[in-house]
Every structure is written in structure tokens, then in C-alpha cells.
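Researcher: I'm preparing a figure for a lab meeting and need a structural model of a single chain. I don't have an experimental structure, so a prediction will have to do for now. The sequence is pasted below. Please return the structure as C-alpha cells so I can convert it later.
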Amino acid sequence: MATSLRSRLAVVFIMAGALALTPVPSSASSSPTIQVLVPNTVQSGVSTLLMAEVTQNASLGSPSGTVTFGTGYGTTLGTAPLVATTPGTARAVLSWTPPPEFTVPLIARYTPTGASSVAATSAYQRPLITSAPVPVAIRLTPTPNAGPIQIDAVLGNGFGVGSVSFFVDGRGWTGSVPTVNGVASVTWNATPGVQAILVQYSSTASNPAGFAVQTGTSTQVVNVLP
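Model: Understood. Here is the structure written out cell by cell.
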């Protein structure tokens, strides 16, 4: 009887050891996240760009697949392929014409092509929609974490080449940033907490569109997570 019990314990011990030598991969390490990036203010009836950024563990490479953009009302806006930007990160871009409404909840769904990743769905983003022209708007990650963050100042349709000054809680960058293809960008080393971003745009007198000098501002409050 004692021999039989020792044999059983030995089998259990060996099986436990065998199981310990076969680690189960963690799904959390391969779970991607997706966020919608859209200017905080857009003009109805005027095409703008929707972006979705998919991020996963850089050791898995950049995410691949497609992103489907939609609204909280069940409308599908379109699907776009992901393009790698940095290790572990890729973006999809879709042209969208905002409807004549105050705001629309936007969402993005990621469909992977590789077996190393899983699908993901973003939180809603709700840009303000106005009938008036928008000289400049802010575009950035909606739920940023502390560290380097890109802030984009996006010019509205019909506004000429110029430069943009950036400020966070009243503190600005030295000098202004020229617009390239309607966008000026800076990298902000963000710290945790609620902070206010301000951008100030001014066109150049010799801009190719031939306009007189144009100006505009935009503000956005963000809560930077630790």
C-alpha cells in the first residue's frame, strides 16, 4: 500500500514538473490597443482625416491588418490598411466628411492578419462639429501616458501654409513650427495630470494659396496617465 502511494506521488511530482517546464504564453503581452486620432474640431461637409493607432509589444513587431472605422450609431465609415510607423506601432488613415451635427461618436476596430495578435476595439472619440471654417485644430492620442507624445496642429480646408506655436499650461516651445502638408507637429514629454494644450496658427503673407494673413487658435484639455 505504502509503495503504491509513493508511486502515485512520484507520478504526480513528475507530471507537475513536466507542466512547470511548459510555460503558457500570456495573452496580455500580445494584446494590442487601438485609439482613434481625430482633430478636436472639424467642419461639417469638409473632408478630414481619421487616424487609428494600433500598439502592441514591440517584440512582436508592428501590428498588421486592417482597421474599420464607424460611428456609435452603427454606421460603417470605411476600412483602411495598417501601415507600420515604429516597432510595435502602426496607423490606418481614412478620409471622412463630417455630417451637419454637433458631434458624432467615432470608433475603430482592428482586425489582425497575423496569428501573434488579437482583435481590438477603441474607445469612442467625439470631435466637435461646426459649420464654420476651422483654421486649426489639435490632434493627439486621446488617453496619453506620461512620456513622449506627438501633438499635431491640423489646418482646416482652405487655410494657407504658415507656422504654429504650441503651449502646455502656458509654457511654450522656443519659436514656431512650420506647417507641412497642412500639419505642424511637436513632441511633448508629458507628465501625469490634467493639462491644457494651446496652439496658435498664423499663415505667411506669401502662402501659395494667395490668401491674406490668416490666424486661429485651438485648445484641448488632456488627462495624462502615469
